[in-house]
Design a protein that fits this description.
The complex is a heterodimer.
Chain A: E1 5-13, E2 16-17, H1 32-42, E3 47-51, H2 56-72, E4 77-80, H3 86-94, E5 99-102, H4 104-108, H5 111-120, E6 125-133, E7 139-143, E8 148-153, H6 154-164, E9 168-173, H7 185-194, E10 199-202, H8 208-216, E11 222-225, H9 227-230, H10 236-245
Parallel strand pairs in A: 1-3, 1-11, 3-4, 4-5, 5-6, 6-9, 9-10, 10-11
Antiparallel strand pairs in A: 1-2, 6-7, 7-8
Helix pairs in contact in A: 1-2, 6-7
Chain B: E1 4-8, H1 16-24, E2 28-32, H2 35-40, E3 44-46, H3 52-61, H4 64-68, E4 75-78, H5 80-84, E5 88-89, E6 94-95, E7 103-106, E8 116-124, E9 137-143, E10 145-147, E11 153-159, E12 162-170, E13 173-176, H6 184-196
Parallel strand pairs in B: 1-2, 1-3, 3-4, 4-13, 5-7
Antiparallel strand pairs in B: 5-6, 7-10, 8-9, 8-11, 11-12, 12-13
Classes of the chains: A alpha/beta, B alpha/beta.
């Protein structure tokens, strides 16, 4: 039985994790490589690293970090943040990333999805979509880290990126993100039902029950979260046992 | 003797994660398409991510197809590697290497997500590759096409109402559909079994 995936997300700047991480038994919790190893040992099913740096020099730091992560980590990992060109994708895959995620760039020029999927294969192209419920009752796509509204409908955009060759969608609800009030089950389910590629849900996780909800009612294939894992509010092993006891297929070993 | 493993160099995908996995186990992967080096290696790994038709075109053009099908040392195909070792793939109607008498099909659309992506449970027959691996072990898969289950299957997995070959064995040849290099400790053990195993 295919397991539902639990994916911690790490924000990285200058090769170090940011946002603060409170992890026991780590010599240097700011070291992204060591944290990645700790998460893999705890049973994370995949990892996601987001590069939040701005300059080109810092990007080189990021690709060398990706290289070090791939030496250490024996589970799949995705990298995102600032990936704009085919060449950027090639650099990250060559450094050992399994998948790359794109967001704003894909909205500005959707044909890059086709190009990247043709060049590297759909299985390594994740399309990140940030959405916000609009007054019209649908969900609107935002870009530039949620700063810029696009007036694009989330459901039709999700269909388009699948059509163009994306292999997976990472859906973040901006309304839910940071609230710890639960995932946005409505749009998660709508997109999951409409698509044939896997969907990762993100934004809003606060309790173990929220994960049950996003897998059952939201029909997500995977769930991504950051702070609740980083601060051990919900330890991954405990979460996974909870999910299994609730009848959700989950990998415990 | 040799802690060196030949990794077949061709036009399919990124092999860095396989090299890193070998490194973690204390082996050095040498990426090569040189016939002599392939024939003299103690082990050969045939990785692959990508698309069957263009990969087979490349193998035929470079005559690597003849080399790969006539090797005698332990040989391990991974993911697309396994699929290329079969008779035929539905992916662009491609004739493959025919090491395994098996056909590669596209998963049916039955409401399950395609590609089959993530950790799934595997049942094995006790082949040396799976020594000390428990039944129903979770391993990591990413693929849209699958090898049919057959008497050559040494492990099976279920997805989209289909039981397919998670691993196939014939003589010195083994193929795995999952990614041992990305399957945590269990995957590392499977790779280690391949690297150390005597029997085939």
């Amino acid at each position: 039985m295919l397991a539902k995936r639990i994916i911690p997300c790490l924000d990285v700047k200058d090769g170090r994790t940011v946002k603060g991480i409170n992890f026991v038994d780590l010599r240097d919790a700011g070291d992204a490589v060591e944290l990645a190893r700790a998460y893999a040992d705890l049973g994370a099913d995949e990892l996601t690293f987001l590069d939040i740096t701005a300059t080109v020099e810092e990007r080189d730091t990021f690709s060398s970090l990706v290289r070090r992560i791939s030496q250490v980590i024996n589970i799949p990992f995705t990298v995102g943040g600032g990936i704009r060109t085919i060449r950027d994708v090639g650099v990250m895959l060559e450094a050992g990333a399994d998948k790359i995620s794109i967001n704003s760039m894909a909205v500005k020029d959707p044909s890059v999805i086709d190009q990247m999927a043709n060049e590297f294969g759909s299985q390594c192209i994740v399309c990140a979509i940030d959405v916000k419920r609009s007054l019209k009752g649908n969900w609107e796509v935002f870009i530039a880290g949620g700063r810029i509204p696009t007036s694009i409908d989330a459901l039709s955009w999700a269909r388009e990126v699948q059509e163009r060759g994306a292999g997976e969608i990472l859906l973040t609800s901006m309304d839910a993100d940071g609230t710890k009030a639960g995932f946005d089950l409505d749009i998660t389910r709508q997109i999951s039902d409409a698509l044939t590629i896997p969907l990762i849900a993100s934004g809003g996780a606060g309790t173990k029950e929220h994960f049950v909800d996003v897998f059952t009612q939201g029909k997500a294939d995977a769930a991504l979260a950051a702070s609740i894992f980083h601060f051990s509010e919900i330890p991954i092993p405990e979460l996974k046992i909870f999910l299994q006891n609730r009848g959700i297929p989950i990998r415990l070993r | 003797m040799s802690r060196t493993v030949a990794v077949v160099k061709y036009n399919a995908g990124n092999i860095r994660s396989v090299l890193c996995a070998l490194d973690r186990l204390g082996y050095k992967g040498v990426v090569t398409d040189d016939e002599k080096r392939l024939r003299s290696a103690s082990r050969v790994i045939f990785p692959g991510v990508g698309e069957a038709y263009s990969a087979m075109e490349y193998l035929r053009r470079t005559h690597l197809d003849e080399v790969l099908t006539s090797l005698t040392q332990p040989f391990l195909g991974i993911c697309l590697g396994l699929q290329l070792m079969c008779d035929h793939s539905e992916e662009r109607d491609t004739s493959c290497l025919s090491i395994f008498p098996t056909r590669i099909r596209l998963f049916p659309s039955v409401g399950e997500k395609i590609p089959h992506m993530g950790w799934n449970t595997v049942r094995h027959t006790g082949d040396y590759l799976f020594r000390d691996i428990e039944q129903d072990q979770y391993l990591y898969f990413v693929h849209s096409f699958y090898a049919e289950a057959s008497e050559k299957s040494i492990a099976t997995c279920q997805y989209a109402d289909t039981t397919f070959s998670a691993a196939i064995g014939h003589e010195n040849y083994r193929g795995v559909q999952f990614h041992p290099e990305k399957s945590g400790a269990a995957g590392a053990l499977i790779l280690s079994n391949f690297l150390k195993g005597e029997q085939f």
